[in-house]
Specification:
It is a single chain. It contains 9 helices and 2 strands. With 230 residues, the protein is mainly alpha-helical. It has one domain. It has a two-stranded antiparallel ribbon with strand order 1-2. The mean pLDDT is 94.
């Protein structure tokens, strides 16, 4: 019998827990916000993994266990942003920029997870860079259902920000701008992951490196929104 926590193996759970505790400590007054953003990602990811389970099993696309590599690939960049927040949050500009970057990075990995898990339930996908039809499960392949699921995921991930609206408003952070950054960061991240998937298919990189850089790209998109709208 598998004793997994939200699809994480025991070892991955320990690594995730250590990372989570460090995030709480390094995040200062927003430590719990950063932590619950990551925890909500795990919850949503676990739920969406079982959507269409019977079909995925039939196509040999079902994956209900994530290991340490998954935790590092998805959690390393958000963790590094919190670490930067610990040292740079005394400066208002850096503080707000890092909050936006963190939100964009987490919505990116959430959106990518939804796009992958739900996209395989759609019809024949296309390779984003070549626009050619490919078989389901091919790295870099996208469907309209998958992209739409990614946007939905970014929205669902953003809901965890609601309990902190008062804090953001008091700090002078536009919650509308933060939501826009979250949605576009999520969409940008999952599309960038698909672009990197093309190179995966050609022997350059793997799903872990793609997940990591997708989270980085999501934070870049969010930062652009911060500079334009905040």
């Amino acid at each position: 019998m598998k004793l997994n926590f939200l699809t994480l193996t025991p070892k991955a759970t320990i690594v995730g827990l250590i990372m989570g505790l460090l995030i709480i400590l390094l995040g200062r007054s927003l430590g719990l916000f950063f932590f619950f953003m990551m925890l909500w990602f795990l919850v949503l990811s676990a739920i969406v993994s079982f959507v269409g389970k019977r079909y995925k099993l039939k196509k040999k696309l079902f994956e209900d266990t994530r290991g340490i590599k998954n935790v590092i690939a998805n959690g390393l960049w958000p963790f590094l942003l919190v670490l930067a927040y610990y040292f740079l949050s005394s400066n208002p500009f850096s503080k707000y920029a890092l909050i936006f970057a963190f939100v964009g990075s987490v919505t990116a990995i959430t959106a990518d997870k939804f796009s992958s898990e739900i996209g395989v339930l759609d019809g024949e996908p296309i390779m984003l860079l070549t626009l050619k039809r490919v078989k389901k499960g091919t790295s870099g392949a996208v469907t309209w259902l998958g992209i739409s699921a990614g946007v939905l995921a970014a929205f669902l991930q953003s809901l965890i920000m609601l309990p902190w609206i008062g804090y953001f408003s008091t700090a002078g952070i536009s919650i509308i701008s933060l939501f826009v950054a979250a949605i576009l960061g999520g969409l940008g991240g999952t599309l960038f992951d698909s672009i990197l998937g093309y190179f995966e298919e050609n022997g350059k990189g793997n799903k872990y490196t793609s997940n990591f850089f997708a989270s980085v790209f999501g934070s870049i998109v969010a930062l652009v929104i911060f500079l334009l709208l905040a």
